[in-house]
């Protein structure tokens, strides 16, 4: 598979300014949307994979961002979903991290190219950039956020 951000970052998986205030609510929302757009075919199975991974160690990465992810046979194609909430909320009791930006990353079980690791790595590098984070926080439409997130493509 030719990996690029354009293959995995989807405009129909970007959600801005939603009134969501818990990890469970955020993951339910994002996995439901992932099933609706057809990148996964079973919400509950994928949600359980993400929660199993989350139980190992919190995916909150600082800067008010969490990057939950899962690998499963129900993932039809690799994807990144982005949710920005209206309020900060506690992502994990383990580390008391407050978040309002969540990237849900899904990859097929047969993931020969380690797509999710490449995407997580490049996304993480960009998230260290103050300007990138500020734009994620402040841009007000999906097209602008999609364009910003797609800019990681050049490094994959």
Automatic annotation (TrEMBL):
Q: Does Transferase show up as a keyword for this record?
A: yes
Q: Name one GO cellular component term.
A: membrane
What sequence ranges are listed for the domain PTS EIIA type-2? 7-152
SUPFAM superfamilies in alphabetical order: Phoshotransferase/anion transport protein
Keyword Flavoprotein among record annotations: no
Keywords, alphabetical? Phosphoprotein, Phosphotransferase system, Sugar transport, Transferase, Transport
Provide a GO biological process annotation. Answer: phosphoenolpyruvate-dependent sugar phosphotransferase system
Name one molecular function that GO assigns to this entry. Answer: protein-N(PI)-phosphohistidine-sugar phosphotransferase activity
Xref: Pfam families: PTS_EIIA_2
Which PANTHER family does the record match to this protein?
PTS SYSTEM FRUCTOSE-LIKE EIIA COMPONENT (PTHR47738:SF2), PTS SYSTEM FRUCTOSE-LIKE EIIA COMPONENT-RELATED (PTHR47738)
Name used for this protein in its record:
PTS sugar transporter
Organism name: Gilliamella apicola
Taxonomy of origin reads: Bacteria, Pseudomonadati, Pseudomonadota, Gammaproteobacteria, Orbales
């Amino acid at each position: 598979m030719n990996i690029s951000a354009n293959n995995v970052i989807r405009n129909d998986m970007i959600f801005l300014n939603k009134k969501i205030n818990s990890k469970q609510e955020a993951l339910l929302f994002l996995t439901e949307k992932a099933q609706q757009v057809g990148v996964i075919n079973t919400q509950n199975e994928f949600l359980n994979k993400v929660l199993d991974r989350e139980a190992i160690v919190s995916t909150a990465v600082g800067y008010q961002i969490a990057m939950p992810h899962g690998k499963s046979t129900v993932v039809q194609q690799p994807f990144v979903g982005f949710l920005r909430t209206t309020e900060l909320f506690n992502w994990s009791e383990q580390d008391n991290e407050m978040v309002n930006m969540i990237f849900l990353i899904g990859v097929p079980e047969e993931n020969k190219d380690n797509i999710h690791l490449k995407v997580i790595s490049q996304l993480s590098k960009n998230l260290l950039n103050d300007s990138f984070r500020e734009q994620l926080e402040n841009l007000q439409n999906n097209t602008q956020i999609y364009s910003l997130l797609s800019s990681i493509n050049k490094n994959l």
